[in-house]
Amino acid sequence: MPVTTSSPRPAEGTPPALRTGALGTSDIAFFVVSAAAPLTVMAGVAPLALVLGGIGAPVGYLLAGLTLAVFAVGFTTMSRHVRGGGAFYAYITRGLGPAAGVGAALLALVGYNGMEIGVYGLLGSATHDTALALTGTDLPWLPVALAGLLVIGYGGYRSIDFGAKVLGVLLVAETGILALLAAGVLIEGGAHGLSLASFAPGNVLVPGTAAVLAFAFAAFTGFESTVIYRREARDPDRTVPRATYLAVGFLGLFYAFIVWTAVQAFGDERVVEAAGSDPAGLFFSAITTYVGGWAADAMHVLIVTSVLASLLAFHNAINRYGLALAEEGVLPRALARVHPRHGSPYRVGIAQTVLGTAVVLVFAAAGADPYRQLLLWVNTPGMLGLMALQLLAALAVPLYFRRVSHQEGALRTVVAPVAAAVLLATAIVLVITHLDLFTGASATVNTVLATVVPAVFLAGLALAAWLRRRRPEVYAGFGAEPVPDPLPATPTATESALPRD
């Protein structure tokens, strides 16, 4: 794991600021990949993809990764020109104007909060299932979720490099157990010998592939948050694009490889039946067979840590979005405070933890199921919101570069973002048309969940109109000027000798 350095404490009288030079490429990638929760996605969702798409499901993850890599071309090109901490909304403001930017900012807040707060339900249910499987204890979910809120709140309160170290350890553990399963399957040669039938066109071009693509795109949620850490990155013009491509490439290839090994574990003829009869136990059964019961027990525990890692990654992203909006004057200025010792946006973090606690308590008081309702009903609008932001950002790229002088090529500024916009719009349609597979809810509930995203964006447009009338200075300056990157910390002699990624 790379050694990180950070800025010295600000001089007396200087307002505390985020730590500069604290994150390298791998640190940022840890945040992004951890947010995706690879182990939870594979053990919890991939079996359903196999049921719906058959043995060609691994290709769905490759196609989703390829689409998002195309999106990353224009996105990272624009990241060299937009230097603020507002990420999505800053990009959309520059390309589509301040009204769309304010709408995007509100959508980002709701989207990222939805992606995080809903997962506390998953933390409660996953911990309950793990305790039941390993000890026979029927652990209630609410105390676990509340304890998780405190743990994640503390992690966000600490410095960003502290979070990077924690996520590095947790990510290595959860991907390691999946790699161990894959190694066991490959060494044994699978159930009936290794086969590449998953990649044959006849097994990919089937009706269920559309549903697989919907699941696959959802599995990458949060990868774009690399740009949120620009102000804390070392050499951000290089670090942020590298981390983005690293995260997308790793997730796409890793997901496809692990799903393919699951097919090999049961065989082309049996895997769909096995996934359909016990989707929740598919990966546990495979790792028990090819590695041992102890590995299945470890996987139970690591699913819980995978969820914690995802929560911490999203919490840190939300905190930086909130800080940027408080600095813009859209959120209360009181939230635009950075901890003097940890260099963390701690006030936004406290506010986010309070909000998460309130939502969890409301669902608990209503007797809601932590998985089917708290997770799925809160997470789904969050996922759709982030996908909509990706689409808006892709549309913003060519419009931005039409208005500014630059030396970027047309492939990066026009061709790739337009292609990404078409592909992302298709992905959103696929997800919405298969929303019942994500939620298991009624058509009425699904309609409400799907309309949250346009409703929030329209509320953002209304907020923009209000700002334009009542606070024109905030509206005029919203995302318009880049926030200069602070000077990097001057390393000590010892730090200069340490390796950097």
Automatic annotation (TrEMBL):
Region called Disordered, residue ranges: 479-501
Listed GO MF terms: transmembrane transporter activity
Annotated transmembrane regions: 28-52, 58-76, 88-112, 132-154, 166-187, 199-223, 243-263, 283-314, 346-368, 374-401, 413-435, 447-467
GO cellular component: plasma membrane
UniProt keyword list: Cell membrane, Membrane, Transmembrane, Transmembrane helix
Membrane topology type: Multi-pass membrane protein
Subcellular location: Cell membrane
Keyword Transmembrane on entry: yes
Transcription regulation is among the record's keywords: no
Principal place of residence: membrane
Name the record gives this protein: Amino acid permease
Species annotation: Streptomyces fumanus
